[in-house]
Amino acid sequence: MSRFILLSPARAALWRRIPASAMLLVLIALACIFGPLFTSHPFDRVYPDYVLAPPSLEPSPNASEARDAVEELAARLGAKIVSMDSTGDSVAAKFSSDRTIDAAALAALPRSDRIGPPRINSSGDGGQNVGLNIPLLRTVFPFGADANGRDLLTRTLIAGRVSLAVGLLASLVALVIGVLYGAIAGYAGGAVDALMMRIVEIIYALPFIFFVIVLVMVFGRHFVLIFIAIGAVEWLDMARIARGQTLALKEKDYVAAARALGASPAAIIRRHILPNASGPIIAYLTLLLPRVILLESFISFLGLGVQEPLASWGVLIADGARNIQGALHLLFFPALFLGATLGALQSFGQYLQAIFADAHVGLESEPR
Amino acid sequence: MPQRALARILAAAATLFVVIALSFFLMRLAPGGPFDSERPLDPKIAENLRRIYRLDLPLWRQFLFYLQSLAQGDFGPSLHWRDFSVNELFAHALPISMRLGAEALSVALLVGGALGAIGASTGAGLRQKLGAFAVDAAALIGVILPAFVIAPLMQLLFGLTWRILPVGGWEDGAWRNQILPVATLALPQIAIVARLMQTSLRDVLAEPHIRTLRAFGLPPRHIYAHALRAAILPTLSYLGLAAANLLTGSVIVETIFGIPGMGRYFVDGAIGRDYTLVMGTVVVVAALVIAFNLLVDLAYAWLDPRIAESASR
């Protein structure tokens, strides 16, 4: 409500025109950046007791899991359960055993993900009849747990960080290469332009994913390498767009004026052409992002990308595909995040493109 | 026209050469050689091995030798499957991949073309609206559901839940084993072809010569036949890219469905650092794509006389 007070009516209208796709993107990005701080699980913490736990908003262990945990505890102590009484956060139980149950015996127990270390409330018959207070550990797995017992929500968000970061950085690499190449070709014109664009046309047809994989294989599966490799093969469209813009803009009077004043070609491209071409370039950058994110997921899906324990959405989806029978949530949640991001980026990119198409400066429309 | 074709063929050959050179030198840049192992080899044996595989020669001579053996159609021994040469692996894998790709491309052209043609007809009728909706839905699915999500879902539905199709395997190309892989490969291409056909057919249907045909009172069947010839051109020029996309997709599809094709050998080779196998795959795949693009180029000029004319002028 306060935003309508803060913003002038015109601004408020602009706010309402921000498409849902952009809001969804901001939401996903914020969730991935800050979400892992609040999920109360480190992304690589393993809970052996919760392998493939189904998604649930109920804290684990539930009543029957708590009973199982207490029975397991009794079995480890060689004791029989005399009585058991659950009181929300803890279980009060009475055990009887042939052996002595004391602090030393309890300290020797293996760590459990379901219950904390039990405390002795009362002890009789030389420690053979004890009343124990067993605290229940309350953990929540909203998206369930993976095949190693790691919280899927945290992992999905962390993977989102990796996927988005690789996407952004690789797009930036493609932006730099493509814009430089395209602007130089467009500004130079003539034979240079023809040759440079012919090269683009030729390599356009090559299946570059194979080169990315070869690069990754040869130089190791490093995070930095992955985005440089992807960026280095995805700049072709960007070069075409930058060239088209440059071709149109270099005929403008202010460029002629700058040239008359003795500005160098580099300065003209940097100061006059690129700022004016930024609209369509940004629109295309938004459309490039989903392709790059998809490419990274593709590589990671094959096991050639980001390595454990770090993950990207492709890694998680590969996990999900392996466990599809019985643990569909492992595929569903990462695929949901990936799909939502791809769809939102595509839709937002088209929205930007439509905006800049109104103010465009003769984007060529030759068939690819 | 022949001049143009010649130029295209030369460019294709040059591209292939660049691809071969690029992958050769990339491989040689890799740290560590194929004979490095946990236990260092006896220096004498290592030297012999290097001599047998000609690794002791200067790089440019190694490259010439590689080109020479490639020209004879020899890709060398596989470093991972020690008992096989890369040629033997390809002899088995290449027909499988090409068959999958050809089937997926046909399905994509038929289904996508039909979808696009239905979606292009403008009007307020239910059929037109459904057609346009189907194209939009296909495009959306093509964006948000990548092949590596669709494939496991289809395995779960058709293979595990309903048990009507095998989850994977090839079985020497039994038709039941081909349905899911071909569908997975074709789906994204269907979305693209449908969109291309829809937009171009819409544009063509609005042109004066089609209006003239309408004014003559020709039945819609005939009008469509005329319009389709012009409207197919953008789809045709997409085919080159489609070939590259299909080969990329085959990597995923063959891995997921366990099909012994080129894509799977490529991934296994990349994970196992089988340099000769990976390089051979890159060269074969690039050659395929380049050849296909060349064919598309020539077919385009044949279908669209304007191009041949502008080239001869």
UniProtKB/TrEMBL annotation, chain A:
The UniProt record lists the keyword Transmembrane: yes
Keywords carried by this UniProt record: Cell inner membrane, Cell membrane, Membrane, Transmembrane, Transmembrane helix, Transport
CDD domains documented for this protein: TM_PBP2
InterPro entries in the cross-refs: BP-dependent_transpt_permease (IPR050366), MetI-like (IPR000515), MetI-like_sf (IPR035906)
Single GO BP term: transmembrane transport
PROSITE patterns to which the protein is assigned, alphabetical: ABC_TM1 (PS50928), PROKAR_LIPOPROTEIN (PS51257)
Lineage: superkingdom: Bacteria
Location of the protein in the cell: Cell inner membrane; Cell membrane
Membrane protein topology class: Multi-pass membrane protein
Coiled-coil portions: none
Domain ABC transmembrane type-1 positions: 160-349
Residues annotated as transmembrane: 20-38, 162-184, 204-233, 281-306, 326-345
GO-annotated cellular components: plasma membrane
UniProt KW Transmembrane helix keyword: yes
Family label: Belongs to the binding-protein-dependent transport system permease family.
Protein name: Peptide ABC transporter permease
Organism: Methylocella silvestris
TrEMBL record, chain B:
InterPro entries given in the database record: MetI-like, MetI-like_sf
Pfam families noted in UniProt: BPD_transp_1
Gene Ontology CC entries for this record: plasma membrane
Transmembrane segments: 9-30, 104-126, 138-158, 178-197, 236-257, 277-303
Localization of this protein: Cell membrane
Organism domain of life: Bacteria
Membrane topology, from the record: Multi-pass membrane protein
Keywords noted in UniProt: Cell membrane, Membrane, Transmembrane, Transmembrane helix, Transport
GO biological process: transmembrane transport
Family designation: Belongs to the binding-protein-dependent transport system permease family.
UniProt-recorded name of the protein: ABC transporter
Organism: Methylocella silvestris
